[in-house]
Amino acid sequence: MTHQDDGGGRGYTAAGPPEEPADQVLTIPNAISVARLAGVPVFLWLVLGLRSPTGDWCAIGLLIAAGVSDWLDGKIARALHQQSRLGQLLDPAADRLYIVATVVALAIRVIIPWWLVALLAAREVLMAGVLWLLRRHGWGALQVSFVGKTATLCLLYALPLLFLGHHVAAYAETARVAGWTMAIWGTALYWCAALLYIVQARRLLTADPPSQREARVPASGESRSG
Questions:
Q1: Quick one: pLDDT band at residue 152, thresholds 50, 70, 90?
Q2: The whole model's pTM is what?
Q3: 1.20.81.30, 1.20.120.1760, 3.20.20.140, 3.30.428.10: CATH of 28-206
Q4: CA–CA separation, 13 vs 220, rounded Å?
Q5: Which are the contacts of 45, defined by CB distance < 8 A and separation ≥ 6?
Q6: I need a surface site. Which of 18, 19, 63, 158 has the fewest CB within 10 A?
Q7: Residue 28: which pLDDT band, with cuts at 50, 70 and 90?
Q8: What is the chain's Cα-based Rg?
Q9: Nearest one of 156, 101, 151 to 127, comparing CA atoms
Q10: Residue ranges of the alpha helices (H) in the chain?
Q11: 81, 142, 147 from 198: Cα distances, Å
């Protein structure tokens, strides 16, 4: 997804751009995000290479760690004032890659239907188009919404349950029901968040772009009346 969360920096609001994040690279939140990204190929190997209950459990542990670290890097960024432009890219990229990797792996293993993959992919394409329009008009990232973050968490924790529901075990039925319940809610919230971002983007696109806003601010010591 194209919006950003607190781990990477603040997004734009309809009132105008907030304080710009720093150009820091070597920060604790960025290191956490890089570690999360490095875990994506490991996750795919566990679920597609091993294809065993043991591999699935290890993959689930990796997803849980990714979800916890997603929350942690935001807390650390705010506490240590380490918001950065690089973090704006790394943090949401890690979220999206884990969701994409999990959804595709589930579809390949015939645990979820491909139409669900297409539904989630369509949302990503839509948001990519919205971000492209914003950047073309001089705006940056959208401000994250609570709905969007909730949707991401629902999907991150629903998809592992679907892996467990595919096992031949006593917990399989409970995991399958819980997994599908969270997956349905997560998908619905995912699209609701997209609609909220579109409304936010529309407000920005109908307002003055950042360059024009800055041009209208009088220079130091200059009278507004001219």
A1: confident
A2: 0.69
A3: 1.20.120.1760
A4: 26
A5: none
A6: 19
A7: confident
A8: 20
A9: 151
A10: 28-44, 53-80, 85-108, 114-136, 146-165, 172-205, 210-216
A11: 29, 9, 13
Q: Measure the CA–CA gap between 1 and 194, rounded to whole angstroms.
A: 9
Read off the pLDDT of residues 206-221 as tens digits, 9 standing for 90 and up: 876 666 655 554 444 4
How many Cβ atoms sit within 10 Å of the Cβ of residue 37?
A: 16
Tell me the pLDDT tens digit for each residue of 51-63.
888 998 999 899 8
Going from N- to C-terminal start, the domains of the chain cover 28-206
Give the residue carrying structure tokens 């705006």.
139
Q: How far is residue 201's CA from residue 204's CA, in Å, rounded to a whole number?
A: 5
Contact 120, 187 (CB under 8 A): yes
